[in-house]
Batch of 3 targets.
Target 1
Amino acid sequence: MSAFAQPFKIFAFHKEAKNMFQLRQSILLFITASIWGSGFVAQSIGMDHVEPFTFTFFRTAIGGFVLIPVIWFLNKLKQRGGRIIHNGSKKDLFWGSFFCGMCLVAAESFQQFGLVYTDAGKAGFITSMYIIFVPILSIFLAKKVGLSVWIGVILSVFGLYFLCIKPDMAFSIEKGDFLIFICAIIFAVHILVIAYFVNKVDGVELACGQFFAGSFVAFFLMLIHDTITYEGLMGALPAILWVGIMSNGVAYTLQIVGQRGMNPTIATLILSLESVMAVVFGGIFLHEVMSSRELLGCALMLAAVIIAQIPPKKAKVS
């Protein structure tokens, strides 16, 4: 009897271990989403002290330096495991870092300028629309777009209307919301560029390279456009360190670790909670309060992001 029951015990053990692994990965991804959500609050606070390009330069530069020891540690693990380190050609890494860095500094700059005029919570939800823009832009790469994505697009349009357009504003949109909207489009392009180069080079090295490339461009934009003061930098320092270390360095690494062995759709759904956490942290630390109309817009946009992740075969109407 015990011999007969032994295979079932082994099966139950492996199933429990798998469930624990999935739970751990989900927690890591939720922590990632929470860190990214809190980043909107830090960015909003930082904008009280420094100008957009200054904030972008320091956050990207810090993010690059944080990932250097991560790359060293991961390479050491590969060496101990007896694996050959093959991180792609230096040429691919250079051009990947350059193009990804250009997209990154453009998106983060539009986001920083937008946060001057809009709330952190709203910015989080509008930014999350990159998840919908990615498959739409993929049309130009001859990729099909499923029904779920188009449903998500329609919902997001209604969500944007309730979130960004006030009842007495007719069909005009506020400046900050429009800048964040552009940011979301550029982030979608950024993801597609990453998707192209990440198959050629190491993902963490690409992230590190894009941070340094972006900071290089942001440095000159900062010198040309911004007014820099010691008092301003010191006032923004906690926010810059949080976004640079946590949002850029730690969260990106957690995302890579957390997505290993996870269903991509489930992983994306968890990461999309970034927008929800932006509202939560905005309410806690910035005392931002949304109207019922804006909350309806947030709910529609969150639903759009979730529905857009449904695989095409599940989205078909029978």
Target 2
Amino acid sequence: MTVRYESAPGSFRYRCKICGCLTPGKASYLETVSIPAGLFDDDPKVRPRLHVFTSSRAPWWTIQDDLPQHEKWVPGYGPKP
């Protein structure tokens, strides 16, 4: 069982009612489903292609690769008004 909550205006996430961990969810404005990486038991055989929400990263975290970076939403993928 999951519980839905609004994590940002127009953006919703889902958590397990029992343990509180994030669960897969689908944004109404996207064609994809988001699956938290912590849910995988094994290597999913995919690798990051970009960094999102870099403006809110931990101040001690340094991005050390050449992947594209987006301070907020990836253009075209943010919540629709």
Target 3
Amino acid sequence: MEFNANCSVVPDSTPTDAGVAGPGVLLSFIVTNCLSLLLSAIIILLGLRKSTSAPIARKLLLSFSDQQILTGIGIQSVGLAKMKTMVPYHFFIIWLLSLLSTATNLSTLLALVNDFKRDWVLRWLRQFLMLVNLFLGILSGIFILQSVMKNLEPRLPIACVWTVESRGHSSNAALAIAGTIAVIAGQVIIFIGSTWYLHYRQHPRWIKSVQVVGLLMLIASGIGATVRVVMESQAFGTPPESVKLVGLGEKDWSFGQLVPLLLLMLPVMSTVEIARGEVRMPPSRVDDDTRPLFDGELEFQPNPLMDSQGSLFRK
């Protein structure tokens, strides 16, 4: 493990990092963000019509949001921990994925704010995760901003932004700097507004307007981050030529790329279990292995396609 970034020698090429920019990792963030925004829109729309509380959609959205904010915090932590070896290209992709994570979390907050208000543990847990995500997002954004301002050599580690001299400004430096500053400032403003929104006890009439406008802004943010990820990554687009990636490792579909997508099925399975009702437990407590689990006749709900004897076809 390297503890000091080597900023004096520019490498000839950059190794690929499928753990950060592989197709499965990118798709897991993109798909989760799309599904969360869709579920949030459904819940908010049903709330405007006051037709149903949509309990299944609410549980599924909460599961996706919990998974996304934890993975967002995790991937940003990995990026900052590897900043002495990670190039700006991979660090920028991590930052874009964190924006998708933030959009997912905020859309969930817009749609399920009353659920969080009913339970102070869930409310403050959500507040803590939002604070950690904000801190990591701002810290990562500062590194990105500094690399753009100094026009850092693309093949040097991102940590070198604090030691190397500026190489002047690139052709799109002004636009990139303005966009990065706007995103960082927006994260702070949105965090303050979402904190007030989360802890405000009353239910004003204009709250529905806030939900609709906020959701439209988050959809735009999610689309923008998704487009940049697709265009910049080797997995789906074309990375900058100056990075000089070696090989096509970020295009390969390995087991490590399938796992993040398979984990997306967990919230769906939990939702099916919720829809079918709670799992039935024995009425009495079992003290040891010598006592039977059921003192009486075993209660069993048969498959409607089978008969009482367990045969596949009814007689």
